[in-house]
Design brief:
The protein is mostly helical. The protein is about 70% helix and about 0% strand.
Amino acid sequence: MSTVLKLFLATRPAFLTITLLGCLIGLSIPDSRKESMAINLLAVTLALCIHAGANLINDYFDHLNGSDENNRNRISPFTGGSRFIQNHLIKPSEIYQLGFALITLSVFIGLYICSQTTWLLIPLGFIGVTAAWTYSAPPLQLMSRGALGELSIAIAWSLVVIGFAFMQTTNITYQIIPIGLAYGLMASNILLINQIPDIEADRLAQKLTLAAKSSPHELRAWYTGISIAAYTLQIIGIYFYGIPIQTLITLSVLPVFIICANQISGVMVRKDAMKKLILNNLVAIHLYSLLLLIGLLWR
């Protein structure tokens, strides 16, 4: 396997789909289409670079704290990092350098996009890049601070939707905020479920994720509450901000979220059942995102 291919795979490209869907949802919200295809594609590249860079930075700092090294309960490829460092395929310094380079590249791409659209995007970009870095890197290491980790993920993915919609209009379009927040919350539930197999290793590494700090009952409550909040925000967007009522097609996924919530307590000691829960949750959230996109375009 070539070095370039190894570095590419270390970014965990299969997990970038949730970011791509966020970009498409943001592009589908405004009624007018202002920006060129080239600018939009460049913005998608920016979003994917930040996500890929954040994955690499996360691998690097989980290597330093020992969480990935001591993880015996991981469910590959969903939890426990990419394993490229632990399997001695890539040096830790190379992982860090590529992560830093991708995030730095995204900053320069972002500045160019702002110069072609509006400099009002700067605050959104700053918050997004800060979230990508501080989630894993000291001194904040939000991944080790309970619900702050999920909050940072929810904010980051909300801004993907909001930023793309804002870029099309260069005006503050308040109707996108509830949908953006709903999407961000759903994305944070991916993180919440994927943390469960890593609880033991994370606790040993003093990486106190929300899962590591919670009992099974509390985890179920968090997962359920986040899902309800996302749907509530979506309904607020429909009722108050003119979001197409067709987006309620996402309610068809609700039974799967209920099943996932009910499974949380029972699967925590069974690796096969945990893998099934992770897959069900990933499929449900991606399906929710796809149906949301279809509902927004269905007008």
